[in-house]
Write a structure and sequence with these properties.
The longest helix has 18 residues. By secondary structure, the protein is of the alpha/beta class. The protein is built from 7 helices and 10 strands. The strands form 3 sheets. A 6-stranded mixed sheet has the order 7-6-5-8-9-10, with helices on both faces. It is globular and about 55 Å long.
Length: 210
């Protein structure tokens, strides 16, 4: 599945490698990769692979799940589609509580003690999805874990998820997509080691040296 999803993401440029012309993240880090999994929603064949893949992950890794909760905003559509496939209720968690109405942060019905799986599109350092998990726990939910489309596998993210006792299962990962990108001719095979060096330590810009 990792390679199928990797090929899909590359084909629609949801994951796009440009090691010789790095992108600049908001943090100022120079990155050889651009990721926008929202593009999967506008590519029906890829979307079908992604949503059925996420549904399979939920069934395999979290068979006791009762509710799906999407992250705002990227995970909402995926949670809705996967919820439809699995015939499960879904909702989503706002980045912050509303400043009007009932002041909800969690949208959709959630009962205390319910077993929840969070649906996320992308995990890098893990900060945003951990905030979602903590918000759900504060409301009394039992968060079984997370399913996501893509993860960078950065050590900082792995450490933060472990510290917060959050399990994540992804359809594909940075290493797999880099490998497929070389196999399919999107990048030179010699670029893979540079990309992995970036993934290991994004702050170290020596990966840019050929």
């Amino acid at each position: 599945m990792q390679k199928i999803i990797a090929k899909d993401l590359l084909s629609i440029k949801a994951v796009f490698f440009r090691p010789d012309q790095p992108f600049t993240w908001a943090s100022g880090i120079k990155s050889p990769v651009y990721t926008d999994n929202r593009l999967t929603l506008t590519a029906p064949e890829v979307r079908d692979h992604v949503e059925n893949g996420l549904a399979k992950l939920v069934k395999e890794h979290y068979p006791e799940a009762e509710v799906l909760m999407g992250t705002s905003t990227a995970g909402i559509a995926h949670a809705a589609i996967v919820g439809h496939i699995l015939n499960m209720p879904m909702g989503y968690v706002r980045s912050s509580a509303k400043d009007h109405g009932r002041g909800n942060r969690i949208e959709g019905r959630l009962e205390k003690g319910q077993k929840v799986v969070v649906v996320e599109d992308l995990i890098s350092t893990g900060g945003s999805v951990i905030e979602v998990v903590e918000a759900l726990r504060e409301e009394g939910a039992e968060v079984l874990g997370v399913v996501s489309i893509f993860t960078y596998g950065m050590q900082k993210g792995l450490d933060r998820l472990a510290a917060a006792s959050v399990k994540n299962v992804s359809l594909t990962c940075f290493d797999a997509v880099a490998e497929v990108a070389a196999e399919e001719g999107y990048i030179d095979a010699s670029d893979v080691a540079r990309l992995i060096k970036f993934r290991n330590n994004p702050q170290d810009e020596s990966w840019m040296e050929k």
